[in-house]
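Standup, Tuesday
Yesterday: got the pipeline producing structure tokens again.
Today: sanity-check two examples.
Blockers: none.

Example 1:
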Amino acid sequence: MPTLCRSLAPRIAARFLAAGLLSLAPGAATFGQEASLAVPTMHGLESDSALAYADLVDLALPAEIALRAQVRKAIRLKAEEAPGVPAGYARLYVEARTTALLIGPDLGESVRFLADVPLDARGKVPKLKKAAVLVLARAVPDRLGELQLVAPDAMLTPTPGREATLRAILTETARPDAPPAITALREVLHVSGNLAGEGETQLFLATANGAPVSISVLRRPGMPATWGVSFTEIVDSAARPPLPATLAWYRLACGLPERLPVRANISGTLADRQIAAEDYAQVRADLGPCTRKRIGR
């Protein structure tokens, strides 16, 4: 496709991209509940602290393409060509030159897409020409170089920390044994040991692909309870908690309910059910919150 002139670009872009091509890609996570506006910078889109680790995973999981590019042209669409844009944001038609492909097929040098960006303090679109950006998207079938972002705000500033984190996420998600999405807490069972204060609580989780995931919490007399997660069929009492800012951490922190559902607690006695609830609360506290900072939509 030839480069579009400035007067025609918004209308043509709106016609072949806006009609459904800016919606979330299939399987994309929704925006988090802990929402805050991204913070514009002079030459970029938002500060490095404007996105949490969970935000980057939310964007990376549905992405078929992740690339770094340099913006050649960014034209603001008119209001009638950009329905659903939140207050404080503008929708742009962007043409960019690919400088590095993180994942995905070869798209050629030139890519085109629509993106929502935050306005600056004066209500103006930030100057993006020649700016470097990270893009998470999927290809539009039969249209070489045309992309659909996995979310309207999936054009990011490529700070060194953010790009390194994103590369690590993409590497993890590409592994065949990558931790699966948690869909439910199926059963929680505490069994007391022979000694006072001794026992084990086991949590069995349901996953999107049916792969087994379990958590074991061990109690020993006079010692703090310890726990770990296993992503295999073996319930491993020697397992450890996931490291922060890893896909395993994200799956648990963002997939487990805040509180133990009563129906999931199948421990035999009232005392065992109480201990199971306490052990689950410790697991949740140790994981910490699944913080998200992207704007809610």
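Example 2:
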Amino acid sequence: MPRPIERRNSPIHGNGVFATDDIPAGVKVARYKGKLRTHKQADKRYGGGSETGHTFLFTLNDRYVIDANVGGNKARWINHSCDPNCQAVLVEDEGNPAGDKVIIESIRAIRAGEELTYNYGITLEEAHTARMKKIWACRCGAPNCTGTMLQPKGGSKD
């Protein structure tokens, strides 16, 4: 059962999602919703997105992405953190990639009023240059913040 959450201004970045009641660890908080698009359709519409540092596209599988710019819900406002309290879980529909979905689940207890976050796990094919790291800057403020939402390539520190 989805937990009570609300969108409001975030100290991390723009909008955020906050718990309105205490949320225990290990529960479904929200489903990430939006228009289902193929990667080709998303690239045509948004031009790949790696240069903007802002996207509501969530890679679902090798064939599809969820475009929360169209038909999205509050889950699209959940910000990235290097020390998250939630995680994105892919729920596969065996044999039907269009039926796959993303659930945001708490990974620890979350207090009422606390902002929900998860690690976006952004990977880019292009080099993680200083310019790209600046475009994809992390503002989570966690003690272990890496300064970027980009994930290291192949376990290396880019």
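Quick observation on example 2: The chain has two helices and ten strands. The first helix runs from residue 39 to 46.
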